[in-house]
Amino acid sequence: MKTNLILIILSFLITTSVQAEMATPYYSGYQSMGADSKVFGTIAMAVWYPTEQPSKRERLGPFKVNVAINATPALGTFPLVLISHGSGGSIFGHRDTAQFLAEHGIIAVSLFHPKNNFRDNRDEATTDNWINRPKHVSTVLDTILAHPEFSKHINREKIAVMGHSAGGYTALALIGGIPNTAHARLQCKHNYQKDKKFCDLGKGKEDRNRDIIITDAHDPRFKTGILLAPVGILFSDPGSLDPVTVPVFIYRTEIDRQLEFPFHADLIARSLNNSKWVQYQVLKKANHFAFIAPFPDFIKKEVGEAAYDPPGFNREQAHQKINSEVLVFLNKAFAN
After folding, report:
1. Is the pTM of the predicted complex or chain greater than 0.90?
2. Residues 304-331: what's their mean pLDDT?
3. 78 bridge partner residues
4. Is the dihedral of CA 87, 92, 95, 99 positive or negative?
5. Among 40, 102, 126, 234, which is 20 to 30 Å from 185 by CA?
6. CA 307 to CA 244: how far, in whole Å?
7. Predicted confidence band at 23 (pLDDT cuts at 50, 70, 90)?
8. What span, in angstroms and rounded, lies between the C-alpha atoms of 205 and 303?
């Protein structure tokens, strides 16, 4: 009898401990809205935010997520992270990370980059795209900071930008990096076979490219940046990353055929001489698309390469680790 009682108590304690570890401070609220721009039209936005209102299983596009749609934000002010998807990507591409951040007390805003998304990708690998992407994000930041409800809940001293692939380029330009578009052309002239998939994106668009140093992308409101498998070759000029003084988290994948080593993430990591601190990690056994949230089976064939992983890599498990590491990095960056 005593033995059974001890086992019951132990079982209760273990269950309680596991539940405590799984518990999050908040639920994730969700709202969709738009940022109006005379130049870009309306930029679609998705806002994920801490709320006390219980979430439930909802469908957003083809995806099912646990959110409380249009819930009232939790009391208090919170850090803010803007999320820039990769070329040809989606506003929901990093939905699991956005939801995770919201549940842990951070507002996350993803955006749909005009003319560089899965519906309309006409500006991919063009000079206009390199110029406009950071402006899209700054426009969305203007909108959320002026929003009558969310503006009251944002800590303006704790704003970050996170981006994947072309979104990583975008994030780096926003925190001070100075891109030179000539390096895309030079890379494909001298290293085509070594960085083939990156170069192939620009084929047939030569008349839409020009050599320009982009000096107006920096937005000092961003206090830190997270770069996931970022495009880096445009930052090849000596000193082009010297203006970056904020903390930076760079994550690349071991098997990246879209952005070949060492021309992108590694180039950035080696050139950040003035950053407050740099965290640089490699995601083992993963391909370029590993940072995108997992796709449901019924659309994987339609999505294609971005939906599939190399043997031995589990994207769902990896994202649990990635999301936790992003949160730890942000808490450390915002504390300093």
Report:
1. yes
2. 97
3. 154
4. positive
5. 40
6. 33
7. low
8. 24
